[in-house]
Design goal:
The structure is a homotetramer of 305-residue chains.
Chain A (H helix, E strand, L loop, with lengths): L1 H4 L7 H24 L2 H32 L4 H5 L4 H9 L2 H18 L4 H6 L13 H12 L1 H26 L4 H4 L2 H12 L12 H47 L10 H11 L3 H25 L1
Helix pairs in contact in A: 2-3, 3-6, 8-12, 9-11, 9-12, 12-13, 12-14
């Protein structure tokens, strides 16, 4: 059964079908949630929304159970030690399984807890995160975020401290003239956040001369606050790229270890190139540079004999 | 005839003239379209706009026909197999030919379909895309976009999901207090898009305490949403640059393959340098570094004899 | 006593405890400052705020005195020449000690100078900067800012000059139509800053045709003004990264100096890797690339014998 | 006389004095211009502004004449062929000399042309560009802009085309509902520029459902428009940095050309390091890496004997 749910090296049509259907269902769920909030539509198709919700819950519940049941057949868990039960308990605690659970849990909780159903409905949006299973580019993004988490955290700490300072200063400068906007520091924080992030709604703006002088300074600092994460992420993406290139270089070095290209490594290099997302041109250039280097070394070697 | 329309290695004055005239005509078409929308001008020069439109259509139609007819003489299609008819049919389906067709099609469709002419007029703007044929720097931009398309798509998927979550949350928090702005999720999406992109019109803003707390969080996330594509594109441009440098290095390696610079490769390297957009200084430094390396190897080589 | 305040190689539980408590106290101070500004809360808990302030001042004063007293026992000052008194005087002038002083000074000054206490209160926020002692990622940010200070200063100079030009031009173009917003250049500066930083409140916007044409131009220039620091910081972070990699490479070179890996350098490399923030994968790839290179050289060497 | 105006290798106190005074005078001119526009100040100090203007014009005229007269003594022009008159004519046409002329020309033109003096006054701001002579970091910025001019031009062309398309579409969608904001394409351009640059004043926003759908799309495209120049400039700054590093590497290679460091090149390397803006740490790492490489080669070399 795992073959329908998890990718495998052997091409499996059923796997592709089940995946496509699940992605489609998630998309329909999001559309239904959005349409449901429009009163005119909700009043007419009220019944249809309930039927669709029940169908979705049924399918997602079956999917969740099937994934837990079949997780032991995936290559990752086959290599792990432990009984099938232990593996399934381990899988249940993985992020992807938790997202799957959160997608259906609010519905079942609705039976036990008496609450405003409209608030519960919002949690259906969690289903959109089920998509994260399918995108590889998004996993690259997450990787960059993970690698740069300390720098990004520091950048947002700086943003937070500057926001506090700006809010305090503006509270002091403008609270007498605009008590409706700057009567407390938490209120002034709204202005300082909207300004530092360069969103600038304009619902709250300084009006005194001193307030505008200081506000102008904060808009300039805001440029830096936007530039910091851009710079950190740019550096993170470049690093990911250069690391993948280094990794491919390593494989190339291995292929050239006898001084000339080992033909039998060709298919392995091809697969590695695709997996690392290195372009054809790039790989060809790297290989040719390698060949030149070994020719030179060989030349010296022969001359030195 | 192809000589007037497509660039060739031999300098052809007629080609330059035709190109300049076509670029000029596209520019005039854009200016005419913009002026046409100003009522005061339109009422006075109504007749002139019609004459100019007819002239433009005539020239663009001739250009389109000429390009299809002469495409078989271009170097690219001369290397391809197949009859002239097949080549022309292939050319018609190329992006550049489709843009050329779209530039004139609305006019001819106007004869068959009865519709508000003013809406048709907007399609004339498509003519501006005919310019993409002429700019090489824009092709570099497109290249970077193409290489980074998966990362950019993932970034915009993240933006879309966060926009949905923000709209749902704000709809729940503010729909009772501001029913005119947050009465449905699609309406709340307008706010969340304007905030996440840091545009921040200010026509819709949260007013409740909880709404502003969450809204503030979304403005911070907005910084990340702006930083992501900036980071991806910065890494993409750097990669393009380093790849071109590697390519030039490869050519240099070839030129130095006998241990010293082969003078006959000089003109080839010059052309390559210009094509890859590597500066004079850069190329000179790379070559000198190369020379030093070979001198050292030669030195060792002699010592080892 | 220094063991409780400064990090040391030997793991010291008391050090960790004191640090955690101090960080907590700083956080509570910030929260108290923010809550204090909300009138409803201030009126009820007025007394509590005073008690908490007195307690904080007491602890921070003890901390300040303890740090000055014990600074001579830190590794840095033990290596310095001079008497203990000289070392303490030197420490008092260090940025971290000045921040510590500024955190308590306003309170003591309040006894001597008669002023509005609410303004003095804002200075309590300076305590948040005491946190900079504890974050290593923030020190990386500061390092990048320090390295790129000339470029960033130039970028902000360009911003300043363009802001001046934009304000002058808009003052000339709009002062007759909107005298309430553009009656003087300093007033027009508010508009030009808000526009160039892409904040765009919308409280002041050009309304004449010529004003909007010029204003549109300034919005485009604003993109460049945001892009400049982003580009400078991106390049700065990349440089930091490549320098740390080069540094690790240097240590690797040292470890391989006899042509094969010296096992005894293993723990040193491990610590260096952690300190430089280089990932496990990265370090493993670099070491393997090193090994390949030496194998090749060894191969040539043997052949040349 | 050139010694007071142009930097020279020999330290000249008079040169420093004249420069500082000129920079001060430019700063005072900018402040005077800004204060002059404030009516309350202008009415009281009217006479003083005129005196200061006359003094500034006198000094700048003398400076302009002195620079033209003494340009022949600068190292650059001493190396050039041609008579002193030819050199001076050549200098007059250089960008820096033109800026110097523009700083005083409006005043002298005022005698011949009868026009509103307040408009002429704005041109005094051109004097601020005289500062560009003194900043080296700004010359680095200009260099990056110059190197990336084609990419930046392409990016702004894309911005222009998308702005046109957005304006046309919004004009079609909203002109009937908001004739006061979208009655013509040039009027709609104001909205599309303000949105694409993420400034987002909010004075003009779409109100129809279709208009907001399309407007939301344009805000997303706006993120890309901001990211493009950020990416281009980030890559440009990185390239400048790596080129300077390559250049220093070249000099190091030269210093090591006999297999070990040539001590006599030490001062040259020091000056080069300072000129290229490479940090001490960076330079030390590069040199040590170099030493290791030569030790290894030497080791092989000895073994091969």
């Amino acid at each position: 059964m795992a073959k329908c749910l998890e990718p495998s090296t052997e091409y499996d049509k059923r796997y592709l079908w089940v995946d496509t259907l699940l992605i489609l269902l998630i998309g329909l769920n999001v559309i239904a949630l959005v349409l449901h909030s429009i009163e005119a539509i909700e009043q007419v198709y009220y019944q249809h929304f309930i039927y669709f919700e029940l169908l979705s819950i049924a399918i997602f519940t079956v999917e969740y159970a099937a994934r837990i049941w079949s997780c032991v057949d995936t290559p990752y868990y086959q290599q792990q030690a432990g009984s099938n039960m232990q593996k399934r308990l381990h899988y249940i605690r993985s992020p992807l399984a938790i997202i799957d659970l959160l997608a259906i849990l609010p519905f079942y909780l609705g039976f036990f807890i008496q609450t405003d159903l409209r608030y519960l409905r919002v949690f259906r949006l969690l289903r959109v995160f089920k998509l994260s299973r399918y995108s590889r580019a998004m996993q690259l993004l997450l990787n960059v975020f993970k690698e740069e988490r300390y720098s990004l955290f520091a950048a947002f700490s700086v943003l937070f401290i500057i926001m506090l300072v700006a809010a305090c200063a503006m509270y002091t400068l403008e609270k007498d003239i605009q008590p409706e906007h700057f009567s407390s520091i938490p209120q002034a924080m709204w202005w300082s956040l909207v300004t530092l992030t360069t969103v600038g709604y304009g619902d709250v703006t300084p009006v005194t001369g001193l307030g505008r002088l200081f506000g102008g300074l904060i808009t300039i600092v805001g440029i830096g606050m936007v530039a910091l994460p851009a710079g950190i992420l740019a550096s993170g993406f470049s690093e990911q790229l250069s690391r993948r290139r280094q990794f491919f270089q390593l494989a190339l070095d291995q292929a050239f270890k006898d001084g000339k290209f080992a033909e039998e490594t060709e298919p392995l290099l091809k697969r590695l190139r695709a997996e690392l997302g290195i372009s054809h041109t790039e790989a060809a250039i790297m290989r040719e540079l390698m060949e030149k280097r070994y020719q030179t070394l060989h030349f010296n070697d022969t001359a030195g004999r």
